[in-house]
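Please annotate the following for my students:
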Amino acid sequence: MSLTSLKLICHVTTLIFAAGMMTTAYAEKADQDKPIILEAEKVSVNDVQQTYELDGEVLLIKGSILITGEKGNIKVDPEGYEYVDVQAKPESTASFRQRREGPANEFMQGRGQTVTYNAKTELLTLTGDASLKRLHNMQMLDQLRGWKIDYDDVQQRYEVSPPANAKAEDLPLARAILSPRRKATLEK
C-alpha cells in the first residue's frame, strides 16, 4: 500500500470519526462584537495596515476566545474580521479556548505548536502535536489528536492530517475519542 493510499485512509477515517462529533452548538456568536484584548511583553501596532505583532507571553482575549503562545500576528481585514496566528516556544504549546453557543458550559479547547484562527470563516487550525477537545462542565466529551487539526465551526467539521513527510509505518497518526451521541445529548 502506498503512502498516498495510507494518508487517504487516515483522512477518511478521521472524517468518519469527525462526522460523529457534529452537534448543533456553534461558536459563541457574541464573540464577534467584542473588543480584542492583547497582552505580551512587546506589542507593535500598525494602525494603517491594521496589523499587530506580539512577542513574549502572548495572551489574546476576544469575548469567550482565549489564545496563548509566545509570538503572534494579527491582521484585521476591512470588514473588521481578525486573522490570528500564534506560535509556541519549541518546548511548549500554544492554546485556544472558546465557549460554544447553546449548551451552558460547553467549550472547544485545543493546543499545538501553532494556533491559527480566521474569525471570518470561523476556521481554527492547530499544527504540531495538536489536540482538540470538546468539554461540557469541564468533562471531556470528544478528543482529537494528530499532527494537524482543522476545525470548521460553521460546517461543524473536523479533519486530522498527518505531516506531509509521514512514512507509511508511522500511520495512522490521528486518534479520536468520541462520546456516544445519545449520552452527550441527554447530559446537556
User: Anything to note?
Assistant: The chain has two helices and twelve strands.
